[in-house]
Design a protein that fits this description.
Layout: H1 3-61, H2 67-75, E1 81-86, E2 91-94, H3 106-111, E3 113-117, E4 120-128, H4 160-210, H5 225-273, H6 281-308, E5 317-319, H7 321-338, E6 342-346, E7 354-356, H8 358-374, E8 381-391, E9 394-403, H9 425-430, H10 437-447, E10 451-457, E11 461-469
Parallel strand pairs: 6-8
Antiparallel strand pairs: 1-2, 1-4, 3-4, 5-7, 8-9, 9-11, 10-11
Helix pairs in contact: 1-2, 1-4, 4-5, 5-6, 6-10, 7-8, 8-10
The structure holds adenosine-5'-diphosphate.
Adenosine-5'-diphosphate is lined by residues 371-372, 375, 403, 405-406, 408, 416, 421-424, 428, 433-439, 462.
């Protein structure tokens, strides 16, 4: 048994013992006192009726002659023993026929119930309880002082069978208390085991997860707080597993990305050293370009890791996004001209200002423009547009880069913002793409409190939009 179950068991046992013990004790006391009162009431009535019968007898026969038979009849099935003395204390009747003719002492006289007829003392009646019967230890035995004269002989007389009944009742109370206690203890232990079982399962799974078994889950079979705990645990395990998988994928992707340019550099250098290639401008340029790819890749990796961990430092200022777009359009126009692509821009007046990091916003725009230029054939068109737009009820500015290039297949569209995702892997790589450009754009836009999304029709072109919240004025 675990320590928690010891504690629950201890607490339950204590509670059950205390509550059952106290309740049974109180019930016992109450039953005993109620029972005694009931008996006393019955006894008082009995003695009063005996007194009145004896009074009638005395009045009728002017004495106690032959009263013994009547007394025996009067006792009937009542417990104990009736003794009658005359006014002087001489015993004239005894339901056990033992003391007739004996003289009572003063003490016993005072314990008897006086029978008086029309103001004349006729005698004393003694009712000796069952405990005293036959013992001869005194008439007063078992008698308690009554509230009135006639109550004297009646008070506290409990016959053997009545005492047995009382004992029986008390035993029943203790027994039912004990049984109720056992039932409560059993139920409590059942409940405790229902709490402890899922907790144990949780701790087992937690240990396995710590040991690297990230696919571990616990069964959720209740809707209470324990069920919620199990569900949260499973969520945590799920996100640990997802994170671990994406970490492994990232490492594999990085290794893969590094290998291609390094292989080219190594192969070219080996060729030059072996005398297969000339150390001429062409081969040195290959080495330089692949080194540049590596440098860009490392820079992109750094950017994305900073952005993903929320550690990207943004130098936020209030700025006019139109300026950035104009500058980027100007730079891209040289390349566009080289590729015979028309670059148009639509920048309206009175645009809201945004708060952002100018370098990063330049980077986002440059990335989108460079992608558009790469995926638009000669004679195509790229347009840059800006407009004030509400996004999810918040005012801001939307920047759109639209091209009429090759477009993106619908199956690829939901993934293009993922790290290292490329639609046409070999072509993208040969064009120097790391597959990180759009992932960086997404992270940067989100770091500004913005969003980025793409729309595309295969063979018709694509539009990449990013939205930034307007500065608070
Ligand atoms: P890369 O640096 O390899 O271009 P990106 O993350 O910038 O990687 O882009 C991911 C993929 O999205 C690219 O492989 C490319 O196929 C596709 N893509 C991006 N921009 C465009 C566009 N304007 N038109 C068509 N496809 C695009």
């Amino acid at each position: 048994m675990s320590r928690l179950s010891y504690k629950i068991f201890g607490a339950l046992l204590l509670t059950v013992l205390l509550s059952v013990g106290l309740t049974s004790f109180a019930a016992n006391q109450l039953t005993a006192s109620q029972f005694r009162q009931y008996i006393i009431r019955g006894n008082t009535e009995f003695i009063t009726s005996v007194e009145s019968a004896l009074g009638t007898y005395y009045a009728q026969y002017q004495g106690w002659d032959n009263v013994n038979g009547v007394l025996i009849q009067l006792l009937g099935s009542n417990g104990g023993r009736l003794v009658l003395s005359d006014a002087s204390g001489l015993i004239v009747a005894d339901t056990q026929n033992k003391w007739i003719g004996y003289q009572t002492d003063e003490y016993s006289l005072s314990n008897g119930t006086l029978i008086s007829i029309s103001g004349t003392d006729a005698g004393y009646l003694y009712w000796i309880g069952s405990q005293g019967s036959g013992s001869g230890s005194g008439y007063g035995k078992g008698m308690q002082s009554g509230q009135n004269n006639s109550g004297n002989a009646a008070a506290g007389i409990i016959s053997e069978s009545q005492q047995q009944l009382l004992d029986e009742m008390n035993r029943s109370i203790w027994l039912s208390g004990g049984l109720a206690g056992l039932a409560a203890l059993g139920l409590g232990l059942l409940l405790a085991s229902q709490i402890i079982r899922p907790l144990k399962a949780l701790s087992r799974s937690a240990r396995r997860i710590a040991g690297g078994e990230l696919s571990q889950r616990v069964k959720v079979d209740s809707r209470d707080e324990l069920g919620e705990l199990a569900e949260s645990f499973n969520h945590m395990a799920q996100s640990l597993e997802t994170n671990e998988q994406s970490r492994q994928r990232l490492l594999a992707d990085i290794a893969h990305e590094l290998r291609t340019p390094l292989t080219v550099i190594e192969g070219t250098v080996d060729g030059i050293l072996d005398g297969v290639f000339e150390a001429d401008a062409q081969h040195l340029t290959t080495i330089k370009e692949e080194s540049a790819t590596l440098t860009r890749l490392i820079k992109d990796l750094r950017d994305i890791s900073l952005a993903e961990s929320g550690k990207l430092k943004l130098e936020m200022t209030q700025l006019d996004i139109a300026d950035i777009i104009r500058r980027q359009a100007k730079q891209a126009s040289i390349l566009a001209k080289d590729k015979s692509i028309a670059l148009l821009s639509d920048i309206p007046a009175n645009l809201s200002t945004v708060t952002g990091d100018a370098t990063r916003l330049n980077q986002i725009t440059a990335n989108l423009l460079s992608n558009a230029l790469r995926h638009t054939p000669a004679g195509g068109q790229i347009s840059l547009s800006l407009k004030n737009m509400l996004y999810r009820d918040k005012p801001g500015i939307m920047v759109s880069v639209t091209d009429n290039g090759e477009g993106i297949p619908p199956a690829d569209l939901p993934h293009i913002f993922d790290r290292f995702y490329r639609v046409n892997t070999s072509r993208a790589r040969s064009e120097g793409g790391s597959g990180l450009g759009l992932a960086i754009v997404k992270e940067m836009a989100e770091a500004h409190g913005g969003y980025v999304w793409a729309e595309s029709l295969l063979g018709k072109g694509s539009t990449f939009n990013y939205w930034l919240p307007a500065s608070h004025t």
